[in-house]
Amino acid sequence: MKYKIEKENFLDIKAEVGVVFVIDKNLEHKWVCDAKKLEKLGFQAGDGEVCLTQKSKLLYVGVNSLDSDDIRVASSNAIKAIKNTKFKSLKIALYLDECPALAVRSIVEGFELGIYKFEKYLSKKDKINLKEIIFSTEEYNDKNISQTTIENNINKALIITNATNLARDIVNTPPQDYTSLSFEKDALEISEKLENVTCKVYDEEFLKKENMNAFLAVNKASPIPPRLIHLTYKPKNSIKRVIYVGKGLTYDTGGLSLKPSSSMVSMKADKSGAAAALAIIKAAAELKLPFEIHSILGATENAIGGDAYKPDDILIARNKKSIEVKNTDAEGRLVLADCLSYAQDFKPDLLIDMATLTGACVVALGEYTTGVIGFNHDLINDFENRVKYSGELTNPLRFNKYLKTLVKSNIADTCNISSSRYGGAITAGVFLSNFIEEENKQNWLHLDIAGPAFTDNAWGYNPAGGSGAGVRMNLYYLMNLAKEAK
Ligand code: BES
Ligand code: ZN
Ligand code: ZN
């Protein structure tokens, strides 16, 4: 979509359709030209309600408040109502809450996230006539905002939403077409296009040499080779080294501990952590953030076959710890164990893994929320505060001394499942913590995105299917850290 800024008042700008947010049912606002008609039409400006008036060509959208995520949802609702019409140009004014930069970004993010549709496999694609969105510099409460602030934040929002939509595309692509080799191709393409981004791709031989036997075990029954993909973004002005590790299971059948048919459906989304890590580094480089960022993707599928790894196998991970496998469906943590060990060779100031790790996390928090797990409660609090305005939802899940005892094995250093059926999201975190070195324990965050990464039904500005979970959250986190460092 093309964006333009005009200094004229909203109502004076020429465009084929205008969007008016009706905040908290306030129909007496200066931009509402059709109050009587709206009343006749039964429009009550409830949250999510939209109404297009014929004569004035204004689309009224009900919004609860000026809160940035309410605005995101509103502009997503607006674009959904308009995208299949004949209108080629749309105008909108500004709605500022506290932070002007955030307010502009929220509107653009809502448009770009709301218009997304995964169409690759549809023989008939949507025809979108809308080509141009015009911002008026006029503001809801007559506040002033500079043209450069508007421009900069439109650009930032486009980078952030392009990355989110890239992650959505990767997650939605079916397992026969998106494999570890697709991750390799996408990662190399991204690194070639971006200054300061390099990419190393490692194959089975490397994994063997590095004794990454947990990762290799998961790959055993797959006809497609595993890939460890290591992208690095190194700007000159780096103030911190942040390392992302992403679970890239391009399909999870459960292995020999086979998933029931209905739970297997949608396991193409088990690559969401790696998709997010790839999208984050791309956007971070485009935003020129002052951090050295690494994204390490562990890509393979968890298949079945004669040579599949088995419950009862004991694996020696890269860090030499032995793991008794009791369930081959707890495979993500095995891939992460070795990738986390590898990641720590690069001395992170902050180590964040992202994974669709447990169904238990979805049971605990619901579908829309990411579980945040780690030893450092201050870091967790700080992370949650800084990601708040991304619109992505988080909730902390704390370790405790009793849960810590549940991933023990009698014959190996640890077991890949808990001895209890309860608290599975946290005990998965406990398992991972076996692979975090002492010096990194306070710098490590585990994000379980099993809920929000993929949903059967649309929510807010997210469509049914992949949502791009983790991408905006981490970009907002990094942008917020960068702002403070200035
Ligand atoms: N990929 C799944 C977790 C998952 C479940 C993601 C639902 C998204 C939606 C993971 O590999 C898995 O199968 N975990 C098992 C762990 C269990 C065997 C301890 C689970 O959650 O059931
Ligand atoms: Zn699994
Ligand atoms: Zn999995």
Protein architecture, described:
- The protein is an alpha/beta fold and 486 residues long.
- The chain is 34% helix and 21% strand.
- The protein has 14 helices and 19 strands.
- The chain has helices spanning 35-40, 68-82, 100-114, 147-172, 180-193, 204-209, 213-219, 261-264, 272-286, 332-343, 359-365, 377-387, 424-433, 471-485, and strands at residues 2-6, 17-23, 50-53, 58-63, 89-94, 132-139, 197-202, 227-233, 241-252, 292-302, 314-316, 322-324, 350-355, 369-373, 393-396, 414-415, 444-448, 454-455, 465-466.
- The strands form four sheets. It has an eight-stranded mixed beta sheet, with helices on both faces. Strands 1-6-5-2-4-3 form a six-stranded mixed beta sheet, covered by helices on one side.
- Strand 14, helix 12 (377-387) and strand 15 form a beta-alpha-beta unit.
- Helix 9 (272-286) packs parallel to helix 14 (471-485).
- It is elongated, with a radius of gyration of 24 Å.
- The two termini are 31 Å apart.
- The model has no long low-confidence stretch (mean pLDDT 97).
Residue stretches low in confidence (pLDDT < 50, at least 5 long) are: none
**DSSP summary: helix tally:** 14
Instruction: Note the overall shape.
Output: elongated
Q: What distance lies between the first and last C-alpha atoms, to the nearest angstrom?
A: 31 Å
Heteromolecules bound: ligand BES, zinc ion
The tally of strands reads 19
